[in-house]
Amino acid sequence: MVNTSMQLISFTCAVTGWIMAIAVTALPQWKVSAFIGSNILTSEIKWEGIWMNCIYQTTGHMQCKTYDSMLALPPDIQAARALMCVAIFMGWLSCTVSCCGMKCTTCAGDDRRAKAGIALSGGVLFILTGLCVLIPVSWTANTVVQDFYNPKVPLMHKRELGQAVYLGWASAVILMISGAVLSSTCPLVERSGRYRRGYVGRSFANTPASAPEPPRPITSNSVPLKEYV
Prior knowledge:
Layout: H1 2-26, E1 31-33, E2 44-48, E3 52-57, E4 62-66, H2 75-101, H3 112-148, E5 159-161, H4 163-183, E6 188-191, E7 194-197, E8 219-220, E9 223-224
Antiparallel strand pairs: 1-2, 1-5, 2-3, 3-4, 6-7, 8-9
Protein backbone atom coordinates (compact mmCIF):
# COMPACT_ATOMS: atom_id res chain seq x y z
CA MET A 1 0.00 0.00 0.00
CA VAL A 2 2.86 2.36 0.85
CA ASN A 3 4.66 1.57 -2.42
CA THR A 4 1.46 2.18 -4.37
CA SER A 5 1.04 5.60 -2.76
CA MET A 6 4.67 6.47 -3.44
CA GLN A 7 4.24 5.44 -7.06
CA LEU A 8 1.18 7.64 -7.49
CA ILE A 9 2.85 10.64 -5.84
CA SER A 10 6.09 10.31 -7.79
CA PHE A 11 4.23 9.75 -11.07
CA THR A 12 2.07 12.83 -10.47
CA CYS A 13 5.15 14.95 -9.72
CA ALA A 14 6.93 13.59 -12.80
CA VAL A 15 3.99 14.47 -15.05
CA THR A 16 3.98 17.96 -13.50
CA GLY A 17 7.68 18.34 -14.28
CA TRP A 18 7.07 17.18 -17.85
CA ILE A 19 4.33 19.79 -18.32
CA MET A 20 6.70 22.41 -16.92
CA ALA A 21 9.32 21.33 -19.48
CA ILE A 22 6.78 21.85 -22.28
CA ALA A 23 6.09 25.34 -20.94
CA VAL A 24 9.82 26.10 -20.80
CA THR A 25 10.18 25.08 -24.43
CA ALA A 26 7.42 27.43 -25.54
CA LEU A 27 8.24 30.45 -23.36
CA PRO A 28 10.42 33.23 -24.86
CA GLN A 29 11.85 34.38 -21.50
CA TRP A 30 15.14 32.48 -21.70
CA LYS A 31 17.13 35.71 -21.90
CA VAL A 32 15.86 39.14 -20.89
CA SER A 33 17.38 42.56 -21.49
CA ALA A 34 19.62 43.88 -18.73
CA PHE A 35 19.31 47.47 -17.52
CA ILE A 36 22.80 48.41 -16.38
CA GLY A 37 25.06 51.43 -16.68
CA SER A 38 23.49 54.43 -18.36
CA ASN A 39 20.75 52.32 -19.95
CA ILE A 40 17.72 53.44 -17.94
CA LEU A 41 15.16 52.87 -20.69
CA THR A 42 12.57 50.62 -19.08
CA SER A 43 9.66 51.20 -21.44
CA GLU A 44 10.64 48.11 -23.47
CA ILE A 45 11.84 44.72 -22.36
CA LYS A 46 13.37 42.32 -24.84
CA TRP A 47 12.90 38.59 -24.43
CA GLU A 48 14.89 35.96 -26.29
CA GLY A 49 13.73 32.35 -26.43
CA ILE A 50 14.77 29.32 -28.43
CA TRP A 51 12.05 29.84 -31.05
CA MET A 52 11.42 33.58 -31.12
CA ASN A 53 12.33 36.93 -29.62
CA CYS A 54 9.75 39.34 -28.25
CA ILE A 55 9.60 42.99 -27.29
CA TYR A 56 7.27 43.74 -24.40
CA GLN A 57 6.20 47.32 -23.78
CA THR A 58 4.98 48.74 -20.51
CA THR A 59 1.74 49.70 -22.21
CA GLY A 60 0.89 46.00 -22.46
CA HIS A 61 1.69 45.52 -26.14
CA MET A 62 4.00 42.69 -27.17
CA GLN A 63 5.50 41.90 -30.56
CA CYS A 64 7.16 38.57 -31.29
CA LYS A 65 9.13 37.37 -34.28
CA THR A 66 10.45 33.91 -35.00
CA TYR A 67 14.05 33.43 -36.01
CA ASP A 68 14.59 33.63 -39.76
CA SER A 69 17.42 31.11 -40.02
CA MET A 70 18.18 28.19 -37.73
CA LEU A 71 21.79 27.88 -38.91
CA ALA A 72 22.46 31.51 -37.96
CA LEU A 73 21.54 30.87 -34.32
CA PRO A 74 24.22 30.47 -31.64
CA PRO A 75 25.18 26.90 -30.65
CA ASP A 76 23.42 27.03 -27.27
CA ILE A 77 20.07 27.90 -28.89
CA GLN A 78 20.43 25.15 -31.50
CA ALA A 79 21.30 22.58 -28.84
CA ALA A 80 18.45 23.79 -26.64
CA ARG A 81 15.95 23.27 -29.45
CA ALA A 82 17.08 19.72 -30.08
CA LEU A 83 17.37 18.67 -26.43
CA MET A 84 14.05 20.19 -25.38
CA CYS A 85 12.26 18.39 -28.21
CA VAL A 86 13.95 15.15 -27.15
CA ALA A 87 12.93 15.83 -23.54
CA ILE A 88 9.28 16.31 -24.50
CA PHE A 89 9.25 13.04 -26.45
CA MET A 90 11.03 11.14 -23.69
CA GLY A 91 8.64 12.59 -21.13
CA TRP A 92 5.68 11.26 -23.10
CA LEU A 93 7.38 7.87 -23.41
CA SER A 94 8.16 7.86 -19.68
CA CYS A 95 4.54 8.55 -18.79
CA THR A 96 3.35 5.70 -21.02
CA VAL A 97 5.88 3.19 -19.69
CA SER A 98 5.33 4.18 -16.06
CA CYS A 99 1.55 3.78 -16.38
CA CYS A 100 2.04 0.20 -17.55
CA GLY A 101 4.32 -0.62 -14.61
CA MET A 102 2.32 0.89 -11.77
CA LYS A 103 0.56 -1.40 -9.31
CA CYS A 104 -2.77 0.34 -9.73
CA THR A 105 -2.96 -0.61 -13.42
CA THR A 106 -3.82 -3.96 -15.00
CA CYS A 107 -1.10 -3.92 -17.65
CA ALA A 108 1.18 -6.98 -17.76
CA GLY A 109 -1.45 -8.98 -15.87
CA ASP A 110 -0.31 -10.58 -12.60
CA ASP A 111 3.33 -10.82 -13.62
CA ARG A 112 4.94 -8.93 -10.78
CA ARG A 113 8.45 -9.20 -12.18
CA ALA A 114 7.41 -7.67 -15.49
CA LYS A 115 5.56 -4.80 -13.78
CA ALA A 116 8.57 -4.13 -11.56
CA GLY A 117 10.87 -3.98 -14.57
CA ILE A 118 8.49 -1.68 -16.45
CA ALA A 119 8.21 0.68 -13.47
CA LEU A 120 11.99 0.74 -13.12
CA SER A 121 12.36 1.56 -16.83
CA GLY A 122 9.83 4.39 -16.51
CA GLY A 123 11.74 5.89 -13.60
CA VAL A 124 15.03 5.77 -15.51
CA LEU A 125 13.38 7.45 -18.50
CA PHE A 126 12.12 10.25 -16.26
CA ILE A 127 15.66 10.78 -14.97
CA LEU A 128 16.98 10.97 -18.54
CA THR A 129 14.21 13.44 -19.37
CA GLY A 130 15.32 15.65 -16.50
CA LEU A 131 18.91 15.55 -17.77
CA CYS A 132 17.75 16.56 -21.26
CA VAL A 133 16.05 19.60 -19.70
CA LEU A 134 18.93 20.44 -17.36
CA ILE A 135 21.66 20.52 -20.02
CA PRO A 136 20.25 23.24 -22.34
CA VAL A 137 18.99 25.37 -19.45
CA SER A 138 22.36 25.30 -17.69
CA TRP A 139 24.20 25.90 -20.97
CA THR A 140 22.10 28.97 -21.69
CA ALA A 141 22.59 30.26 -18.15
CA ASN A 142 26.36 29.84 -18.45
CA THR A 143 26.38 31.74 -21.76
CA VAL A 144 24.34 34.59 -20.29
CA VAL A 145 26.60 34.91 -17.24
CA GLN A 146 29.79 34.85 -19.33
CA ASP A 147 28.49 37.51 -21.71
CA PHE A 148 27.28 39.65 -18.81
CA TYR A 149 30.75 39.81 -17.21
CA ASN A 150 32.60 40.02 -20.51
CA PRO A 151 33.83 43.62 -20.93
CA LYS A 152 34.04 43.17 -24.71
CA VAL A 153 30.28 42.68 -25.02
CA PRO A 154 28.42 46.00 -25.46
CA LEU A 155 25.98 46.98 -22.74
CA MET A 156 23.04 46.86 -25.12
CA HIS A 157 23.79 43.21 -25.91
CA LYS A 158 24.09 42.04 -22.32
CA ARG A 159 21.28 39.81 -21.08
CA GLU A 160 20.08 38.40 -17.78
CA LEU A 161 18.53 35.07 -16.85
CA GLY A 162 14.84 34.88 -17.69
CA GLN A 163 11.99 33.15 -15.91
CA ALA A 164 12.13 30.18 -18.28
CA VAL A 165 15.62 29.28 -17.06
CA TYR A 166 14.52 29.05 -13.43
CA LEU A 167 11.40 27.13 -14.44
CA GLY A 168 13.61 24.74 -16.42
CA TRP A 169 15.83 24.09 -13.41
CA ALA A 170 12.77 23.35 -11.27
CA SER A 171 11.40 21.04 -13.96
CA ALA A 172 14.67 19.12 -14.22
CA VAL A 173 14.94 18.65 -10.46
CA ILE A 174 11.33 17.45 -10.17
CA LEU A 175 11.76 15.00 -13.05
CA MET A 176 14.96 13.48 -11.71
CA ILE A 177 13.76 13.18 -8.12
CA SER A 178 10.42 11.72 -9.18
CA GLY A 179 12.16 9.25 -11.47
CA ALA A 180 14.51 8.16 -8.69
CA VAL A 181 11.60 7.63 -6.28
CA LEU A 182 9.63 5.74 -8.91
CA SER A 183 12.61 3.49 -9.58
CA SER A 184 13.02 2.72 -5.89
CA THR A 185 9.43 1.59 -5.31
CA CYS A 186 10.33 -2.03 -6.19
CA PRO A 187 11.16 -3.59 -2.79
CA LEU A 188 13.60 -6.42 -2.26
CA VAL A 189 12.24 -9.93 -1.85
CA GLU A 190 14.18 -13.04 -0.90
CA ARG A 191 14.76 -15.86 -3.33
CA SER A 192 17.21 -18.78 -2.92
CA GLY A 193 19.11 -17.03 -0.14
CA ARG A 194 19.69 -13.90 -2.22
CA TYR A 195 17.78 -10.68 -2.69
CA ARG A 196 16.38 -9.53 -5.95
CA ARG A 197 14.46 -6.41 -6.93
CA GLY A 198 10.75 -6.90 -7.56
CA TYR A 199 7.32 -6.61 -5.99
CA VAL A 200 6.65 -8.42 -2.72
CA GLY A 201 4.50 -11.46 -3.21
CA ARG A 202 4.42 -14.63 -5.26
CA SER A 203 1.79 -16.13 -7.49
CA PHE A 204 0.99 -19.83 -7.00
CA ALA A 205 -1.49 -20.02 -9.86
CA ASN A 206 0.92 -21.82 -12.18
CA THR A 207 2.67 -23.95 -9.53
CA PRO A 208 2.19 -27.69 -10.29
CA ALA A 209 0.66 -29.77 -7.52
CA SER A 210 3.07 -32.31 -6.03
CA ALA A 211 2.01 -35.96 -5.55
CA PRO A 212 1.36 -37.02 -1.93
CA GLU A 213 4.06 -39.14 -0.34
CA PRO A 214 3.17 -42.80 0.51
CA PRO A 215 2.72 -43.62 4.21
CA ARG A 216 5.75 -44.93 6.01
CA PRO A 217 5.60 -47.73 8.62
CA ILE A 218 6.19 -46.75 12.21
CA THR A 219 9.45 -48.21 13.43
CA SER A 220 10.96 -48.57 16.84
CA ASN A 221 14.67 -49.26 17.18
CA SER A 222 14.81 -49.93 13.44
CA VAL A 223 12.42 -52.91 13.83
CA PRO A 224 8.95 -52.69 12.21
CA LEU A 225 6.06 -52.98 14.60
CA LYS A 226 3.47 -55.70 14.04
CA GLU A 227 -0.19 -54.97 13.81
CA TYR A 228 -2.40 -56.61 16.43
CA VAL A 229 -6.12 -56.96 16.12
